Amino acid sequence: MRIAVVGAGHVGLVTAVTFAHVGHDVAVTDTDAEKLSMLRAGECPFFEPGMQDLLTASLASGAVTVVDSVGEAVDAVEVAFVCVGTPPRASGEANLIAVERSVQAIAQGATGPLVVVEKSTVPAGTAERVGAILANAAPGVTFGVASNPEFLREGSAVEDSLHPERILVGADTPEAFEVMRRLYAPFTDAGVPLIETDVATAELSKHAVNAFLALKVSFINAVARVAEAVGADVRDVADLMGSDPRVGRGMLSAGLGFGGSCFHKDLLAFHHLSAQAGYDFRLLPEIIRLNDETVASVAKRVEDALWNPEGKKVALLGLAFKPGTDDIRFAPALELARLLFAKGAVVVGYDPQAGDAAKAEVPELELAASPYEAAAGASCLVLCTEWEELSELDMVRLGSVMSERLIVDGRNFLDAEAARAAGFTYSGVGHSK
Ligand code: UDX
Q1: Which atom belonging to ligand 1 lies closest to the Cα atom of 155?
Q2: 2-197 with 198-433: one CATH topology?
């Protein structure tokens, strides 16, 4: 099938190369000319494991073409994916101007029957607006609207996209379902379940899933605070909770809390949508408040360890909001850096991929080229992101270059025993082991 992808960000590009990989012809476009030039040069604009190889292969085979406009992209396609940003406004409401403009351009450029698919996370009710634009803008062309939320985790987005656990399609016409079934046939033939529902249910489900995942993270971080106070180990509590299949172990790792572009934005947008619908869903902002409190509590622990933070150097290991990405949006490490700067500390950071992005966001942050360089002269080392390469740190070497041997393990990731054996005072989150 021929399909168009409007928006070449994380979601759009992963979607494009995935469909190309399973045999569809994909035209990709974006309003960012620089991004289009990078793509034409064969370069992926962000770091995501496996993406560069898939992009190179799909550009070389011609399965993905990069085009300048939505009009070119939607020429003779059956499906157009809207994968543009939906950032929060000051009120928390999702700003859907990019969605509206994309849909208008799709309507103007469409040359035949076309299903417009919302892939970006949008508030329930958006499909209705999309349908109205399509109906007004292009009389004579038959449009369908579908919601097909992504469940991609950065760092494993390619794997999640190629081997999804389930595919969710919301649509309101049999024709739209028929097109979406053909599109996903390579996946459903391989046994992936395709769940069909109405559009509003699909849209709302996406917000509900992300809010619930964020709730799990904030919940376990709140439990961690209690665990510290009563001498329990939050890691064991999480395992025990997870052993109940009704709870599930996923998203119950205590630490510095959640970051990333999705959870904050979606919680705010979901809260706004609920309020507009007449229901004050107060739990949603509370999840964010707990998350903020989590970072603040780790900052407090660092301050306590330092005693007088003024002028002391703190090394942050890992700056990305999670491992496997160069994305620093809402990264807890950067929030921690800001809190430590406010106390007069000197903060040096190391990250295998996200250093430059972090420096652009927090210019006072000093960057180091290795964990050992970051640790040189530091009083305290804080593990912020659990990159695999940081699991094998040489504690003796670290200790030998630091001015005080303090470790705060913000992800319960380091080898506490090895750290203590090397003379460190080690503290993790939610336990005293
Ligand atoms: C999330 C959703 O999982 C995905 O389905 C959605 O489409 C986009 O948003 P992502 O933000 O890439 O994906 O990462 P995810 O793996 O869900 O982690 C989110 C944050 O929570 C990260 O900062 C991570 O470090 C943190 N986290 C996750 C925890 O603190 N504890 C956990 O147990 C799991």
Answers
A1: 12
A2: yes
Single-letter amino acid, residue 159: E
- Which of 233 and 142 is assigned the larger pLDDT? 233
Residue 137's pLDDT band (cuts 50, 70, 90) = confident
The alpha carbons of the chain give a radius of gyration, in whole angstroms, of 23
Structure tokens at 160: 């999640």
Other Cβ atoms within 10 Å of 136 Cβ, number = 10
Q: Among 3.50.50.60, 3.40.50.720, 3.40.190.10, 3.30.565.10, what is the CATH number of 2-197?
A: 3.40.50.720
CB 241 less than 6 A from any atom of ligand 1: no
Residues 334, 321: Cα–Cα separation, whole Å: 9
Q: Write down the domain spans for the chain.
A: 2-197, 198-433
Q: Does the beta carbon of 252 lie inside 6 Å of ligand 1?
A: yes
| Contact predicate 69/29, CB 8 Å | yes
51: nearest Cα among 22, 19, 18, 84: 18
CATH of the domain spanning 198-433, picked from 3.40.50.2300, 3.30.830.10, 3.40.50.720, 1.25.60.10: 3.40.50.720
| Beta partners for residue 196, in sequence order | 169
Instruction: Clarify whether 262 is annotated catalytic.
Output: yes
Which residue's C-alpha comes closest to atom 32 of ligand 1?
251
Rounded CA separation 97/85 (Å): 9
Tally helices (H) and strands (E) across the chain. 18, 14
Token pair of 222 as six digits: 């709140």
Cα 399 to ligand 1 centroid, rounded to whole Å:
32
pLDDT at 136: 85
**Ligand 1 proximity of 322 Cβ (cutoff 6 Å):** yes
Residue nearest to atom 9 of ligand 1 (CA): 262
Distances (CA, A) of 46 to 225, 300, 427: 35, 33, 34
Tokens linked to 110: 């469409």
Ligand 1 contact via 110 beta carbon (within 6 Å): no
Which pLDDT score, from 0 to 100, does residue 141 have?
85
pTM score above 0.90: yes
